[in-house]
Amino acid sequence: MKGFKYTYLILFLIIILFHVLSLVADLVFSRFDFLVVLFLLIYEMIDDDNYIWLSVLFGIYTDYARNGFFGPGVMLFLLFSIARFKADIVMDMTKFNSKVLLYTAISLVYCVFNAGLSGYDADSTAIMAVSRTIPNVLITIGIVKFMEYRRAFKNA
Q1: Which among 34, 18, 17, 40 is positioned nearest to 145, based on CA atoms?
Q2: Is 55 within 8 Å of 81 (Cβ atoms)?
Q3: Alpha-carbon Rg of the chain, whole angstroms?
Q4: Angle (deg, nearest 10), helices 7-24 and 34-41
Q5: What is the 3-state secondary structure (H, E, C) of 86-137?
């Protein structure tokens, strides 16, 4: 995220905007987790300089939205950031299949983590995690593909 002067402020304002929109238009935002989609969209830009700050920003909002105590969300997003560095070593992250697998795993872990901390039982957690992971990944892939196609036509 080099070159962006107010990156964290812009991300914070986007998170606040989506939070307000999720309160106003609950039907639209109740099917997916906008925080995971936003995190996955900037996932490629995470590097050694900003992964801690991004983990704190997204983690604190996760803990706030869950009305829980602060800390577990920060650790979860820190784990996701470290997984990005390890995924580059284990998988070829230039391939589409590897990205989809990683995005699906992150979204699934996020949904199970939040449902577990919110006190849902195992059956409800499994159903909710799968039903929220599919739209999260589809929306993320759709936006990423749209940006790639737009960039291809812009450079042509």
Answers
A1: 40
A2: yes
A3: 16
A4: 150
A5: HHHHHCCCCCHHHHHHHHHHHHHHHHHHHHHHHCCCHHHHHHHHHHHHHHHH
**DSSP secondary-structure letter at 68?**
-
Residue type at 137?
A: V
Coil vs helix vs strand at 80: helix
38: its two tokens: 């936003």
User: Per-residue pLDDT for the chain (156 aa), expressed as one digit of tens each?
Assistant: 555 567 888 888 988 888 888 888 777 777 788 888 888 888 888 888 888 888 888 988 888 887 777 888 889 989 988 888 888 888 888 888 888 999 999 999 999 988 888 888 888 899 988 998 999 899 999 988 888 887 777 765
CA 106 → CA 28, 64, 75, distances in Å?
Answer: 22, 20, 13
Tokens read off for 81: 């950031």
Q: Which amino acid is at 37?
A: V
